[in-house]
Amino acid sequence: MLKYISRRLSYTIFILILISLVVFLIFALLPADPAALTCGKTCNPQVIEANRHRLGLDVSVWQQWWRFIVGLFQGRTYGEAEALIKCPAPAFGYSFNRHECVTKIIADAFPITLSLAIGAFIMWLSIGISLGVLAARFKGKFVDRASTVFVLIGTSLPTFISGILILLFVVIKFGLVNPLDLGNWANPFTDPLGWLKTFFFPCLTLAFAYAASYTRFTRSNILETSTEDYIRTARAKGLSEKVVLRKHTLRAALAPIVTIAGLDFAGLLGGAIITEGIYNLAGLGRLSIRAVLVDYDLPIILATTLFAATFVVVMNLIVDILYAFIDPRVRVG
Amino acid sequence: MSATTKSVRKLIASTSAIALVAAVLTVGSATTANAAPTTGGTLYMLTHADQWEHPDPQRLYVGRDIAFFNTYVYRNLVSYKPATGPNGATLIGDLATNTGVPSNNAKTWKFTLRAGITWEDGSAITCEDVKYGISRTYAQDVLTDGPTYAISMLDVPTLDDGSSAYKGPYKKTGQALFDKAITCSGNTVTFKLSRTVADFNYAMTYPAFSPIKKLKDTGDKYDLRPFASGPYKIDKNVIGDEMHLIRNTNWKKASDPIRTPYPDDIVVQFGLAEELRDQLILSDQVPNAVNLDALLPTNNKTFFADATKADQRMNVNDPYVRYYAMNLSATHMDCLEVRKAFFFALNTQALIDLAGGSVFYGAPGDSIMKPNLGPDYAPTTGNIHESFWSINGNPTKAKEFLDAAKTKCPAAYTRATSTGITMDLPNTATNQKGSVLIEDAMKAAGIVIKFNFIPSGVYYATVKDVTKQNDISSVGWGPDWANASTVIPELFIKGGGGNYTQTWNDPAYAAFKVKSDKASAETNRAKQIKMWQELGQTIMDNYWIGRPVFTKTQLVWGSKVAGVGFWDPQGTFLFPALYVKN
């Protein structure tokens, strides 16, 4: 088992290095010149070249990438003389739009995205699985039909619509949250009520779409599992329907759901772009989208891309390891 | 400078200009009915943007932001009078006791600092602070985006590559050269200029010429927290969240003839989703707030149609002209007939309607300058005044010009009708829709057009790159102050801050440049006005630009905000007069 984990860990590190290289090359090949972008409106070729030097872009792409990797361990400096800027390790670069080391920017944004993701994750699992179980348990009855309606609405309403609707017609209309408090960060451990005030509705918005698909998924998994021979055997042994569901059906039906939930959660850690935008949350999603669409802030784009990729790769690793524990055949493979 | 959110324009007026400005500027109310202003309360400002363009004075070049920071956080040697209408363009000594004393044919300017002016830590603002602040403009590799008037006007030598021999206070290369251009004698600061600049004192209204306390300079990071000399100081500034201003207790009213702080504190709410921002204003949920942005078009119409909001809105001409810049270099739009064909084929009405209609967006213009500029603008002949020009486009006439191009410039004709003309546009939803309207109009005239959508954040940097600009680029501009010296040389002379036409490739350029240089150096204002007007006509006669539109802007605010007016020179709220009703 240890051998398997170390092998998977080595793969993961290799993949992360590869991703960083690919992302780096993609940005190097973009037609936009970062040195010109930071040059401003009153630009001239001398300033562009000076900027190129200051940004460390006056060397080959390979050298730039290597400096980036080294910077992750040793930190980096930008500029010179009295205008020297230092970014301690792990240095993901410096944002000249936000006048801050990218690591610090990410560190400030990540707790917001993390708490949004965790809140939404708990909500969608609770709602989705419960409703899915009920729908399967009462197949064809009112609860099942009601869940179908919920699933239809949830999956067909894009987040940017449901988010705006919840915000304008629930939160703002009924004055549930002072609109100027939207986006205010509160530490959930020291100020749980403050956190709830800011994050409840964003979490709900995000959970809405996910819960719908999890309801559907749970329902169909349970129904499919219910037709298995061992379930029939359990019933034949005289076990009550509740016990069959809880002890046999659910255990088997939920295993794939947990796997998917893990990956969905990892995806969200890269940033919930729309929800963060609607609710004025300064998380990784809004940071990324602004960096792409408004500021064209390459160090931030690079870092957030790497972050998002890392979450997915690491979560994959965790899932793989968990599977290896559950199913010994995986280890052999 | 470019007229987007990243632009600024300054309009001031000479005495004769003032009357004209007064006559033409205001479309709606330029000021609300005022009772006696009251002190106290919190004034909120709402915006979708994540941050101000640049709080650092030497990097600030956006009219609205200049007006905000000059009102609340820092002071210049000279500022505009806080008044609506033409009076708002009057210069007043701010940190200086006067508006500058020129000598040596306006190549030398002297300003004397007031007594009792202080920083937020209580220390005195000195001549050396002024000098240090201006020196930062030369650190072009560290402090980007600001206006470069100091570099172009001060008598500091340039190198062979055209850059200044002085590299700013961080590297200190060429420091002695800079020290000769600005000298301090007690409280008097003297500027030696490389050429006659009769309106140098207007440049002083820019924060780029404001003082900086050297010990507080943090280079690039100064943008996060500039040190205050005005009535408020920055308590908090978090990008994407908010900026909170509180009273600067070391600011003294006795030393400031311009500002009277009314609100106790000011909160700028960044990063609001556009729909949320609009709903807060529409429903008056934050009655003590002003909206720093434009409302979304549909919400704008709703707000302006609501009779109950009559005293919470304003619709005025802004300082900008939006236009299509023709790339005049070879293999682009180097054929006059093709440029004319494009000009007359356009369906201007459809594009204006798309952008908000003539009530909210603006009207077709006949020059690169607009009436707000004052006497340097004069109605031109030709272009939209031609009998065959139609606001809906005239494909028949456009085809005639194309036919003429067939013999006069066959290569350009082939490009226009076969391989296609490529147009640069910022990648916005409105432009995506507008491209369809342009394509339809061109198709009717037999012109093949393609579009290159560029992310808004990099748009101007891209189209200003002569190697990356395509045939036509959608841009905008407004004057820095009421003199075409901040328009024509900037836009049409090589090296200008916003030359998007690559004019130097056009046969008419050499004569144009000679005349422009002469106009810039002319100290007789009447003669200068005539030259600018003639140059304005030349631009239109050569169709270096297409579809100029004289645009408008709308300002809206909450029911508890009072003292609202339009500050003409800054093209935005008259911030010094804003207060919160008790």
Strand order of the largest sheet of chain B: 13-17-12-16-14-15
Radius of gyration of chain B: 24 Å
Count of structural domains of chain A: 2
Mean pLDDT of chain B: 90
> What is the helix content of chain A?
over 70%
What is the overall silhouette of chain A? globular
Write up what this structure looks like.
- The complex is a heterodimer of chains A (333) and B (582).
- Chain A is 74% helix and 3% strand.
- Chain A contains 14 helices and four strands.
- Chain A has helices spanning 2-29, 34-37, 45-54, 61-74, 102-137, 142-156, 159-172, 192-226, 229-236, 241-269, 273-278, 284-295, 298-326, 328-332, and strands at residues 76-78, 85-87, 94-95, 100-101.
- In chain A, a hairpin with a 4-residue loop joins strand 3 and strand 4.
- In chain A, helix 9 (229-236) packs antiparallel against helix 10 (241-269) and helix 12 packs antiparallel against helix 13 (298-326).
- Chain B has 18 helices and 21 strands.
- The two termini of chain B are 40 Å apart.
- At the A-B interface, helix 3, helix 7 and helix 12 of A face helix 7 and helix 15 of B.
Descriptive labels:
heterodimer, A: 333 residues, mainly alpha, MetI-like fold, 2 domains, two-stranded antiparallel ribbon, two-stranded antiparallel sheet, 3% strand, globular, B: 582 residues, alpha+beta, 6-stranded mixed beta sheet, 28% helix, 18% strand, disordered N terminus
Give a quick rundown of the structure:
Chain A is built from 14 helices and four strands.
Please write out the topology:
The complex is a heterodimer of chains A (333) and B (582).
Chain A: H1 2-29, H2 34-37, H3 45-54, H4 61-74, E1 76-78, E2 85-87, E3 94-95, E4 100-101, H5 102-137, H6 142-156, H7 159-172, H8 192-226, H9 229-236, H10 241-269, H11 273-278, H12 284-295, H13 298-326, H14 328-332
Antiparallel strand pairs in A: 1-2, 3-4
Helix pairs in contact in A: 1-13, 5-6, 5-8, 5-10, 5-13, 6-8, 7-8, 8-10, 9-10, 10-13, 12-13
Chain B: H1 15-24, E1 42-46, H2 63-72, E2 78-80, E3 91-93, E4 101-103, E5 108-112, H3 127-135, H4 149-153, H5 175-181, E6 182-185, E7 188-192, H6 200-203, E8 232-238, E9 242-247, E10 265-269, H7 274-282, E11 289-291, H8 297-305, E12 313-326, H9 336-345, H10 348-354, H11 357-360, E13 362-364, H12 395-408, H13 410-419, E14 421-426, H14 429-445, E15 449-454, H15 459-463, E16 472-477, H16 488-492, H17 509-521, H18 525-541, E17 545-556, E18 561-562, E19 566-567, E20 572-573, E21 579-580
Parallel strand pairs in B: 1-10, 1-11, 14-15, 14-16
Antiparallel strand pairs in B: 2-3, 4-5, 5-7, 6-7, 8-9, 9-10, 12-16, 12-17, 13-17, 18-21, 19-20
Helix pairs in contact in B: 9-12, 12-13, 12-14, 17-18
